[in-house]
Amino acid sequence: MNDKKTLLIVSAHAADFVWRAGGAAALHARRGDAVHIRCLTFGERGESQGLWKQPGMDLATVKRRRREEATEAAGILGASIDFYDCGDYPITVTEALRNRLVEDMRALRPDVILTHTPRDPYNLDHALTHELVLRCRMIAQAAGHESAHPPIGAPQVAIFEPHQPEQCGFQPQVLLDISPVADVKLAAMKVMGAQSHLVEYYGDLARRRAVQLVRNGGAPGARHAEAYQRVFPVTAGELA
Ligand SMILES: [Zn+2]
């Protein structure tokens, strides 16, 4: 029996996956699991502040640089990456975008899909991505949907931690010990030069989440953690 898992991370912008799920990606990749990242956009308009401060910057250059950074970060984490390049701030959901994500879900057959919160008053691209993921998961499950691939089962959807969790109604349900790959995540974060101000912030967040992980019975030596919230119930044969 194949015990290797497949993770699909759907990131609205080119760097979201690094800050919020980089540890999970590195942890699973190290275990031999397949980790696939799909960036709907490069975050070229809304999340590339560092690049836009440079004189003479233009959209094509920002997109190219963001692609390079995110590709390098994914390589460090041990994940494959692809970009849909559908334009950010705002993302517009087209039939082509929906079909592409449905086909990716059917082809990759993830055991778990990681994505944004359903609510994010600061960033409606993130909330839209959550809904798009659930909609595409639903279509990918439909027996009558025409595709080159068979329908998928019922992969869990794990929401990664948003930048301002309280405003997004985020409830940590799973604290993932990423201590063994904290150095890998740090190296991936450091290549995202357009948003270098976030490296310290997400390092601090991981240390705080690790304190909570230990408090909740996790490994006493844990020093770095990421928080996740599940969309669907977890099935079990026993409670303890
Ligand atoms: Zn984003």
Secondary structure: elements and pairs:
Layout: E1 6-11, H1 16-30, E2 34-39, H2 49-52, H3 59-77, E3 80-83, H4 95-108, E4 112-115, H5 124-141, E5 156-160, E6 174-177, H6 182-190, H7 198-215, E7 225-230
Parallel strand pairs: 1-2, 1-4, 2-3, 4-5
Antiparallel strand pairs: 5-7, 6-7
Bound molecules: zinc ion.
The site of zinc ion (ZN) has 7 residues, from loops.
Key descriptive features of the protein:
single chain, 240 residues, alpha/beta, 15% strand, binds zinc ion
Structure, explained:
It contains seven helices and seven strands, in the order βαβααβαβαββααβ. With 240 residues, it is of the alpha/beta class. The chain has a seven-stranded mixed sheet, with helices on both faces. The model has no long low-confidence stretch (mean pLDDT 96). It binds zinc ion. Zinc ion is lined by residues 12-13, 16, 43, 47, 123, 126. Zinc ion (ZN) is lined by residues 12-13, 16, 43, 47, 123, 126.
